[in-house]
Specification:
Elements: H1 13-23, H2 34-47, H3 57-80, H4 86-107, H5 114-132, H6 136-147, H7 152-159, H8 163-184
Amino acid sequence: MADSTLPPLESYREYLRLVARLQLDPRLLPKLDASDVVQETLLQAHQDRDQFRGQTVCEQISWLRKILASKLARASRDHHRDKRDVAREQSLERAIEQSSQRLEQFLSDDHSSPSERAERNEQLAHLADALASLPADQREAVELHYLRGWSLAAIAVQLERSTTAVSSLLHRGIVKLHARLDAGG
């Protein structure tokens, strides 16, 4: 059974939404809402909480990411009407892990101790909350550029805006993001 000193599963909602948005094919976004996939993830985690054997925040986050990967794979399959592909599911788990690593690198590039990693996991949750509080266009521009590594030109095409407008969105988004992160901790 899970350690009762761990944060409630609900506290990871924005983090999971961020990871889901980073993994969803942009072409699926009109058909598939990351919030719905996260809701299903948290529901399954609550139903299966007695199966969780971890004791640390890192283990809890890893467990949630695996459930999320499974839910994203199923949702993608449902929208593509493909048969189950275990290799694709495992590939999605690796992609989610890589996204999480990019998020951690966004906060810090050092090699740290377990206690520092636990603190960074808490910072990731704050980052996800701060990103969620940005206006949608700023959030999307920041996520695409800093967390997916897209160029300004690619973002401009995706958002149907000029590169100058995207640059402005990024600037305003980062300023607001830093202000929210500084105010929160």
